[in-house]
Amino acid sequence: MTKFASLAAVTLAATVSMVAPTAAQAQAATGPGTPYNFFSGATGSGTFGNNGGLVGTFTNVFTFIVTSRGVLAADFSNAASSNNGLTDIDFTSATLTGNGGTFSFTKLVGEPLALTELWGVTPLNVTPGTYTLTVTGRSFGTPATYAGNFNIGAVPEPATWAMMMVGVGAVGGALRRRKRVSVSFA
């Protein structure tokens, strides 16, 4: 295994363990084998996924009610092994619809290099409203699980952009007016 491949495996393992809720949370929320969604419109972040009952072809639908505009960053991944044997999920598609737009997730890492797949959407600007994420795929082996993040970050205000542009202009102007000093070596 190359250094890059081992680093990627460590990163994926960290991603899966960070986004997945505890088994107790998932069981208490929905019972085994059903989707869960812990998104909070107030904080603009949360997790979603399926807690371990996926067998065969599946379609999971998640609804997110966004309460303020911002930049969306979302991803999801599966766990490639379990205590009872090998599990594998082949995701076939993931689309986000809402406020007149449809956005597709793409596979960032996965087969044929690894059983773990990581899918994400390019960060995009979203406005308040209802968004629906549909994830489809097929699970092989023992019942499988996956988890993801859905986060809305703040968009800088126009005044912040203006202040930044004035600052960059001031630095550029100061550099242009700077007296040039020539140095010669004998």
TrEMBL record:
Residues 154-178 form the Ice-binding protein C-terminal domain. The keyword Hydrolase does not apply. Keywords: Signal. Coiled coil: none annotated. Residues 1-28 form the signal peptide. It comes from the Bacteria. InterPro entries: Ice-binding_C (IPR013424). This is PEP-CTERM sorting domain-containing protein. It comes from Sphingomonas longa.
